[in-house]
Structures are given as structure tokens and as C-alpha cells.
Design a protein that fits this description.
Distance between the termini: 17 Å
Pfam family, one: RibD_C
Radius of gyration: 16 Å
Strand content: 25-35%
Protein name: Dihydrofolate reductase family protein
Order of helices and strands: EEHEHHEEHEHEEEE
Number of helices: 5
Number of strands: 10
Helix content: 25-40%
GO molecular function, one term: 5-amino-6-(5-phosphoribosylamino)uracil reductase activity
Strand order of the largest sheet: 5-4-3-6-1-7-10-9
Largest sheet: 8 strands, mixed
GO biological process, one term: riboflavin biosynthetic process
Organism: Streptomyces sp. R35
Oligomer: single chain
Shape: globular
Length: about 190
């Protein structure tokens, strides 16, 4: 069965973006970008909320046309155009390039999607992740901790009364100081 993997960058103090939605503090160099490209290329689809989708769709479809683009950017533009995307939105009416719009998170439909053949499913966007977590649909958490404190902004995880036990599967530090922490749900049988 395919897994749903939450993949998010976060500041050391737990924010995914600053108070004005800024993400200019992300420290993505060639090594980290290459890692993202390799991991996302393995996925069967990206599951995104509207805001995340529109942010990415505003840049990646033509990013490789810029003569200043790095090899990693050129590679990811191709990945972005070809990977299936499922966008959860009640307001989006049109999306391009292998994109399906879904109006709401229906747990039975997500479980059926996990049963389909193909690679794991990458989940992006804090609001969508919170909804998936409310329905107990996230199997792994890949958190990329950037060595910066931004003070305030949008937290990765909302307040909740639910306790979710996790098991560390892998920890990796990139040359730029970003640390990847890969956690699985405790007891889900993910191998290290």
C-alpha cells in the first residue's frame, strides 16, 4: 500500500512561513535541491492544497526556460510538469498539467487512492496536512529543519488535543545545516 508522506520545510522554531507568507529564509542549495528532486521523482503523486499548488504552479511550469536556472531547477521543472497532482480546493476551478481538483478530504477516497498502484503520495501544505492528520491519514513526516529562527508566522502543526506517537526512521544533515528528520507513525511497520 502506498504511504502518504508529509514533506515540509520548517524553521527551527516551527514555522513554515513568516507572518507575510515569506519563505525567503529557506536554505535550499544544490545538494538539498538535488535531494528533493530525487525523492519527489519517486512519488506517485503530489497532494496539495490550493495555496501550495498556486504558489508552485506560478513558477515551476516554465522555470527551466530561464537562462539563469540551475541544473536542479531545470530538473525539477520537468518533474513538476509530469507528476500527477491532486489539489484539494473548494474554490479552484481550473488547473493545468496532470492535475485533478478535489473539493474535500474524504477519508474513504484517500484510503482508496493509497490502495492504487504506484509510488507513495507526497503531501504538502500545512492546512491540508492538518486535515489529513485529523482523519489519521499521514503515514510519515519528513521535516526539513532550516537553521533559522523567524520568530512568528504559520506553524507547521496546529494545536490539537490528539497525541500522535512517532518513531524516528532517519536523520540526515545536509552541508548547509538543514536537518531532515524522517518519522513514521509508531507501529506502522516502516523499515529503517
Amino acid at each position: 500500500m502506498r504511504k502518504i508522506i508529509l514533506m515540509m520545510s520548517v524553521s527551527l522554531d516551527g514555522y513554515i512561513e513568516g507572518p507575510n507568507r515569506e519563505i525567503d529564509w529557506h536554505q535550499v542549495d544544490a545538494e538539498l535541491h538535488g535531494h528533493f528532486n530525487r525523492e519527489i521523482r519517486k512519488l506517485g503523486a503530489l497532494l496539495q492544497g490550493r495555496v501550495t499548488y498556486e504558489l508552485l504552479a506560478g513558477y515551476w511550469p516554465t522555470a527551466d526556460k530561464d537562462p539563469e536556472s540551475t541544473p536542479e531547477v531545470v530538473e525539477f521543472a520537468e518533474i513538476w510538469r509530469n507528476i500527477p497532482k491532486v489539489v484539494f480546493s473548494r474554490t479552484l476551478h481550473h488547473a493545468d498539467g496532470h492535475t485533478t481538483i478535489v473539493r474535500e478530504v474524504v477519508p474513504e477516497e484517500i484510503r482508496a487512492l493509497k490502495e492504487q498502484p504506484g509510488g507513495d503520495l507526497g503531501l504538502g501544505g500545512a492546512d491540508l496536512a492538518a486535515e489529513f492528520m485529523r482523519h489519521d491519514l499521514v503515514d510519515e513526516f519528513w521535516v526539513y529543519v532550516h537553521p533559522v529562527l523567524i520568530g512568528r508566522g504559520k506553524p507547521l502543526f496546529p494545536e490539537t488535543d490528539a497525541l500522535t506517537r512517532l518513531r524516528l526512521v532517519e536523520a540526515r544533515v545536509f552541508g548547509n545545516g538543514v536537518a531532515q528528520l524522517r518519522y513514521a507513525r509508531a507501529g506502522n511497520g516502516v523499515e529503517e
